Backbone:
């Protein structure tokens, strides 16, 4: 997992929980880096899993809720740090259509050895889109939060229906159906 994700997570814990909580979960987790990550470095995905699990133990908030919350936060941070990937898309559906074959491809060029998920999408109607997440990292809660962050970023209102499909040798698969409300 790229260091940018770790840095944003630790910064979120520092500002939204406390500096002490951030230090404590770093100490609780068995990290190769002692908690010092560079944005372009690559670190074991297990370390983010450990940090989130230890935040869950200390805060009493379940891991899936924390990952979803982090996903919402992360989308806004991506928009601040990498507006070039986001501002040329006019809406949630327009961005999600380009995530797999454009945005994450460009991300891969910038952050070489990034391990990105893959997505399928299908526009079901003017107001509704199917979006399926596939990943060996199995982080559908993070994907869910990123989608919610994307909806908030564009100021749209949407209903998200989520179905976690059976995992297999290719990892986790989750189907999101997004429907514009109002
Ligand atoms: C709603 C839109 C998006 C969704 C649903 C999404 C989903 C995800 C998920 C779930 C991961 C974690 C890895 C995995 O599950 O395999 C990830 C990784 C990542 N995404 Fe996206 N993403 C979105 C938009 C973006 C944008 C706009 C950027 C541009 C800055 C971006 C950059 C990255 C980076 C740098 C990683 C880390 C890769 C690594 O650690 O190896 N994503 N994305």
Residues:
């Amino acid at each position: 997992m790229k260091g940018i994700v770790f840095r944003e997570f630790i910064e979120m814990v520092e500002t939204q929980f406390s500096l002490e909580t951030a230090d404590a979960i770093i100490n609780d987790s068995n990290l190769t880096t002692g908690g010092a990550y560079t944005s372009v470095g690559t670190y074991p995905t297990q370390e983010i899993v450990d940090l989130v699990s230890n935040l869950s133990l200390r805060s009493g908030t379940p891991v899936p809720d924390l990952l979803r919350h982090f996903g919402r936060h992360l989308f806004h941070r991506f928009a601040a740090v990498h507006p070039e990937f986001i501002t040329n898309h006019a809406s949630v559906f327009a961005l999600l259509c380009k995530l797999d074959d454009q945005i994450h491809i460009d991300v891969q060029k910038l952050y070489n050895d990034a391990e990105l998920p893959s997505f399928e999408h299908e526009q079901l109607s003017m107001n509704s889109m199917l979006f399926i997440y596939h990943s060996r990292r199995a982080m559908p809660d993070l994907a869910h939060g990123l989608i919610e962050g994307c909806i908030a970023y564009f100021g749209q209102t949407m209903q998200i229906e989520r179905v976690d499909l059976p995992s297999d040798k290719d990892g986790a698969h989750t189907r999101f159906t997004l429907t514009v409300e109002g």
User: Anything to note?
Assistant: Residues 63-81 form the longest helix (19 residues).
